[in-house]
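Design review, sub-item: ligand-bound model
Attendees: FS, YL, KQ
YL presented the inputs for the BIS(adenosine)-5'-pentaphosphate complex:
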Amino acid sequence: MRLIILGAPGSGKGTQAMFIKKKFHIPQISTGEILRDIIKSDNKNYLKTRISNDIKKGNLISDDIIIDLVINRLKCSDCINGYLLDGFPRTLSQAHAIKEAGIVIDYILEIYVSDSEIIERISGRRIHIASGRIYHNKFNPPKINGRDDFTGELLIQRDDDTIETIRNRLSIYHKQKKILLDYYKNLKTFKIFGFPRYYKISGSFSIDKVRNNIFSILVKK
Ligand code: AP5
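KQ shared the predicted structure:
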């Protein structure tokens, strides 16, 4: 199973990706996580500074960097039975690049949430940096305030979870999403080999209900 999980920043992609990877035993390839790992690494190089500055502003990282990272990641042995792409592709060039690499995507799951809900979700989000576990002060609180449930370590707020940045991220997302979905629709219209099945899921329900709705789609197929 090779699937793309698509959705606005804060729509719940990362939260749901954790459930999907566990149930279907496939790795979650989150470009946001890969980039945050590069930022927190000890390397002091130009690339790290560039990535960090772009993420703080909510801008996209250049296609050449991202495509290289993802194509290399997909060559790892854990991807042999499929994977979940979380946050990739985000541009037409990225979508083209995976197609050119001979990668066939089976499903696109779009999680839809209104922009006003997104702002509340992003401002209350806290993460455990080492594991990528995601919490929310109100909707998914940790057992002990500000601490990870499993390690007890401190939770943090992401640098790009500010109101200004989120507005920029949302506006980029809406523009890019249309371009991407048009691209995949065209593959289907012209019956080009390897067009994915597309499902749009409301992300406005509780975390558990969204998870069940996603599972019912993936299990039936
Ligand atoms: P990335 O990390 O991919 O961020 P994003 O797409 O903006 O998505 P988020 O991680 O913010 O949100 P999410 O949808 O995963 O929501 P979550 O589950 O956490 O990318 C970060 C940056 O990296 C980009 O801005 C860009 O600069 C760069 N980048 C990444 N990929 C790139 C690419 N391909 N090309 C170029 N640049 C790239 O949930 C949010 C909150 O809501 C949490 O607190 C959660 O607990 C809560 N929540 C979740 N579900 C529910 C629910 N159903 N009800 C109530 N609360 C919920």
